[in-house]
């Protein structure tokens, strides 16, 4: 088959793309990354959001396991300490419309662990099962012409050199240089949109207190409907008998980096449950802040004359506010599209392959973008969002009604689970059963507090050092 493919970026999107290429029969697959990659599940410099909460949704995990068959990624993650959390029964979640119920029907199951563990597990599985080669190198540009990319230009200790390739995949993430790289080939005018709510993430790791090992994932969601900055917090179980506690605040409501302020922030949310939990838990790290949170969409799929031999996937195509838990799944969906198009084309030199991959990968990006931006534009001080139009306001009103119904309707809750889990597109919310549930509203009364079991309430009361 084809000789060589070069993937820029050894993160999740890059390693999944490399696995697809190797499984498609590409003779040489080279992954380039400027960072020294850790030899275990540890934070690395090139992943600014790595210390904060990440949720591996069922739809994304299914795509990953299809891409790396036989690796048992779920089994590997669980063996390393990841947790299974049911969207239907395994969470305490306060939505903008009130507390969600925990139903006997478990619903889709997501995995929770550190982002470093996900990246390490996928990278290790790909390197074990394929002949993919990872090299440390900085890519400074593309070679070829506006009609055909022929490889990449790499900077090293001895200067710059060219590495030829039949296909180049840019999976370099949020920090992609794809726009200036295209400029270097004479391709300019790519439309880019940024919607920035000013979100700041603050996270800290705690030891799980004795007796709290089975306490549910707990989240207080931000409320975009009250004309105030969005403020949220989550307690998420991760590997090593630890809790990852992540707070997020949009412009004007940012969480602080000092430990006392971090605790005060959690206690000042519409429900103080996160602060009550962590007030009696032992912190294991400092508070880590991150501001690389804006939604950015590079509309590369709209370029009229896209060059052969170049594909862009993952965050290099579109990034989203990480609060919505979409990024890892969207990266997997993009890599899956690459595999599907390679199967149809039969080789890297098939005319139009790169454009077809780009357009296919853009579809899940656009769905995630619409969900994230549709919320972020409602926060005060959001930049780049513009004024919501009639369609935007109608979508917001319907989303609120559906969320309100989900506080007491299994049909509405199930529709939201299906979309949140990324197993179905957002059109699932307009299925007749979902529309009827939204119109009918919640048949059960609103909960006045979190739906705790007696044992969980005892754990919470035992940990609470705040007097709340």
TrEMBL record:
GO terms for biological process: thiazole biosynthetic process. It comes from the Bacteria. Residues 5-342 form the FAD-binding domain. The keyword Acetylation does not apply. Residues 1-24 form the signal peptide. Residues 455-468 have a biased composition (Basic and acidic residues). Pfam families: FAD_binding_3 (PF01494). Residues 446-468 are annotated as: Disordered. InterPro entries: FAD-bd (IPR002938), FAD/NAD-bd_sf (IPR036188). Keywords: Signal. One of its GO terms (molecular function) is FAD binding. This is Secreted protein. It comes from Streptomyces coelicolor (strain ATCC BAA-471 / A3(2) / M145).
């Amino acid at each position: 088959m084809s000789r060589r493919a070069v993937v820029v970026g050894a993160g999740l999107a890059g390693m999944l793309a490399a696995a697809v290429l190797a499984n498609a029969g590409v003779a040489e697959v080279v992954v380039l990354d400027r960072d020294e990659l850790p030899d275990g599940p540890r934070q690395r410099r090139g992943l600014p959001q790595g210390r904060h909460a990440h949720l591996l949704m069922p739809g994304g995990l299914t795509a990953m396991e299809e891409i790396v068959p036989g690796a048992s990624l779920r089994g590997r993650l669980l063996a390393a300490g990841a947790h299974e959390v049911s969207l239907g029964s395994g969470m305490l979640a306060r939505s903008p419309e009130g507390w969600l119920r925990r139903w006997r029907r478990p619903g889709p199951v997501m995995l929770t662990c550190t982002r470093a563990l996900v990246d390490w597990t996928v990278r290790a599985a790909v390197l074990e099962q394929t002949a993919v080669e990872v090299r440390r190198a900085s890519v400074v540009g593309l070679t070829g012409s506006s009609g055909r990319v022929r490889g990449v230009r790499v900077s090293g200790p001895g200067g710059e050199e060219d590495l030829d390739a039949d296909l180049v995949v840019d999976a370099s993430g949020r920090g992609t240089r794809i726009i200036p790289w295209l400029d270097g080939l004479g391709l300019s005018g790519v439309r880019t949109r940024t919607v920035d709510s000013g979100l700041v993430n603050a996270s800290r790791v705690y030891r799980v207190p004795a007796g709290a090992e089975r306490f549910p994932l707990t989240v207080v969601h931000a409320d975009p409907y009250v004309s105030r900055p969005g403020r949220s917090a989550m307690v998420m179980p991760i590997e090593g008998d630890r809790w990852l506690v992540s707070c997020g605040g949009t412009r004007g409501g940012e969480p602080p980096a000092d430990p006392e302020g971090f605790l005060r922030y959690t206690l000042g949310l519409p429900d103080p449950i996160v602060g009550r939990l962590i007030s009696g838990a032992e912190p294991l790290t400092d508070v880590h802040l991150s501001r690389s949170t804006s939604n950015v969409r590079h509309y590369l799929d709209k370029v009229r004359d896209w060059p052969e031999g170049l594909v862009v996937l993952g965050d290099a195509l579109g990034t989203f506010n990480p609060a919505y838990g979409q990024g890892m799944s969207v990266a997997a969906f993009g890599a899956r599209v690459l595999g599907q198009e390679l199967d149809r084309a039969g080789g890297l030199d098939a005319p139009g392959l790169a454009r077809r991959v780009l357009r296919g990968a853009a579809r899940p990006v656009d769905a995630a973008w619409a969900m994230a931006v549709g919320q972020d534009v409602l926060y005060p001080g959001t930049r780049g969002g513009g004024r919501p139009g009639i369609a935007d306001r109608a979508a917001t009103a319907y989303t609120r009604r559906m969320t309100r119904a989900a506080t007491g309707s299994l049909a509405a809750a199930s529709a939201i689970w299906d979309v949140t889990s990324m197993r179905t597109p957002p059109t699932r919310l307009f299925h007749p059963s979902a529309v009827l549930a939204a119109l009918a509203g919640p048949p059960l009364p609103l909960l006045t507090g979190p739906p705790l079991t007696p044992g969980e309430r005892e754990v919470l009361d035992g940990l609470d050092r705040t007097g709340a």
